[in-house]
Structure formats: structure tokens, C-alpha cells
Amino acid sequence: MAISISETKLNEIKIIEPKVFGDARGFFMESWNKRDFSRITDIIFVQDNQSRSKKGVVRGLHFQLPPHAQAKLVRCVVGSIFDVAVDIRRSSPTFGQWVGVELSAENKKQLWIPEGFAHGFVALTDYAEVFYKTNEYWHKESEGSIRWDDPTLNIQWPLDVNPCLSEKDAAAPFFKDAILFD
User: Fold this and answer.
1) What is the pLDDT of residues 49-63, one digit of tens each?
2) What's the first-to-final CA gap in the chain, in angstroms?
3) How far is CA 154 from CA 32, 85, 98, 174, in A?
4) For position 35, what pLDDT does the model report?
5) Pick from 129, 115, 131: nearest CA to 13
6) Cβ(153)–Cβ(146) below 8 Å
7) Is the whole-model pTM more than 0.90?
8) I need a labelling partner for 131 at 20 to 30 A (CA). Which of 11, 33, 82, 109 fits?
9) What was the pLDDT predicted at 4?
10) Res. 1 pLDDT band, cuts 50 70 90
């Protein structure tokens, strides 16, 4: 197997760790392999996204509602981030719970986030570049968001600087007011 899959406190969220082959020249790894990934799901990815953020930038919490809900496979290719997934499925026993994982260029961990979860991260290093695959195209009318600092969620963000937010993220609704999954 080219990857190992670890559980988190939210059963559907998985930490993916690729097998890394390194020597004096550098390293090689398979960041995604359909055969190995099928142990989790038979998803078909349709879009790759990449962002660059300076230290303290918070992006999220973002999601898309059905019928354009997105699952994501997230990794950090430069620097380090604290990546968060929040269960936003009202019918779920873990509704409103979150998990956070440090993803970095060094640890090469990835986070599998299925549909029904909001996603966000904060850049922990001077710069961080995040790359993620999605199973659904971006669809403006299906976009949703939740305030990153919602007191109900009580996410423990590892921030040592004032957060930098987009206008959209600063104006995001609180969890109790957001339109979520059933």
C-alpha cells in the first residue's frame, strides 16, 4: 500500500499518510492512488484547487450544499496549516463536532473530508500553500459558510497572531444561523 489511513474522533474524517521514499536527492511519494484510496470511497475527483496564505490567514469554514456538496482531499505542500473539519449534518450523532489536524509539507499528511462537513484552516508558517482535490465543481449558489470563531463550535485554533480574514469569512453566519445539511 502506498498510503496508511488513520481514524479521527469523527469516523468519516480520515488522516491519509503516504509512504515516502527519500534519499540524498530528495523524496518521492504517491499523493493519491485510486486503488489505495478505494479503501475509503470510490469517489471520482473532478477539480484540483491550490491556495497560498500568509501566517495567520484563516480560510473557512466553507462547504457546498446538495446537490453540489463537495468532498475534499486536502494537503499542505508548502509550510504548515491547522486544518479543521466540522460535522454539519443535522441527522448525524456527531453534529457540531470538529476535528483539527496539522498538515505540513514536512509531515505530508492529508485530510479526507467527505460531503456534509465544513472545512477551514489557518496558516501556521510565514506562508502556506494548500492543495486539495474535490469530487464536485465549485457552484456559487450552493456555497455556505460558518464563522471560524463560532462560540458553539469552540474550535481551538492555534493562533499566535491576529487572524486575517476575507470579507466573506468575516461576515459568515454563526453555526446556529447557517443553512446546513439535513
Assistant:
1) 999 999 999 999 999
2) 36
3) 32, 13, 9, 12
4) 78
5) 115
6) yes
7) yes
8) 11
9) 87
10) low
Non-local CB neighbours of 144 within 8 Å, separated by 6+ positions: 62, 63, 64, 65, 118, 178, 179, 180
Beta bridge partners of 85: 99, 119
Give me the residue label for grid cell 504548515.
Answer: 80
Cβ atoms within 10 Å of 50's Cβ, excluding its own: 10
Considering all CA atoms of the chain, what is the largest pairwise distance in Å, rounded to the nearest integer? 53
Beta-carbon contacts of 35 under 8 Å, excluding residues fewer than 6 positions away, are none
Instruction: List the grid coordinates of 3.
Output: 498510503
Q: What is the pLDDT of residue 39?
A: 77
* Rg, the chain, Cα only: 16
Q: Is the model more confident about 105 or about 40?
A: 105
Q: Which helix (H) or strand (E) holds 102?
A: strand 98-104
Decide if 3 contacts 36 (C-beta within 8 A).
yes
Q: What confidence tens digit (pLDDT) does each residue in 8-20 have?
A: 999 999 999 988 8
Cβ burial, residue 26 (10 Å; 0-12/13-18/19+): exposed
CB environment 112-130: b (16+ within 10 A), e (fewer): bbbbbbbbbbbbbbeebbb
* Dist. CA 31–CA 67, nearest whole Å: 28
42: its cell numbers: 470510490
Residue where the block lists cell 477539480: 47
